[in-house]
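Batch job 17 of 40 flagged for manual review because the log was empty.
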Amino acid sequence: MRRTVSARRMRLLGRGAASGLLLVLAGCAEPLHVAWNDTQSIIEPVRREPQVSPPQGALTVYNERYVLYNGDVPRITRRPVDVYTVDGQLAASEKNPFGEGPLHFALSPGHYIVVTKSHGQWRQVHVDVQAERETVVAEAQLDEAPLAAASQSESTTQLALSQVCVACRHSAMLLL
């Protein structure tokens, strides 16, 4: 009985330390550079009436889901999503999306770049948001989307310490 309790404590401590290190490393990665590409197809809005006030449109993103454990309790969550204007300015973001449902954004009409991770790679799609309409990005569209600039040079299996910002290296070393 005592071994089981000790093993369980060690497992929980190991998950906590690994999660803490992951947060420190992920939070200090180099910023993602996005740019509009005129040769890439644009996801157009559908005719459904979104639940937003004019003159805004709606963007709905169905991106990759995964299971996150809170102790022994599994929680379904989605990958973070960033929405950029065509000139690279961050227009909207969802960093901690919990739940199985899609992510919803109310945006001014215009063209945007949606960036999220799919199968360990940063991917981007171009979308057109129109007033009083809903643009839907399906998970399959993200799976097949072109790689974002950072993914083209980033390893898919591990984050190199050279990509961690200088200010966070000291903290990362303490956790190791």
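Reviewer: the log was empty due to a logging misconfiguration, but the result itself is present. The domain at 32-157 is CATH 2.60.40.10 (Immunoglobulin-like). Unflagging and moving on to job 18.
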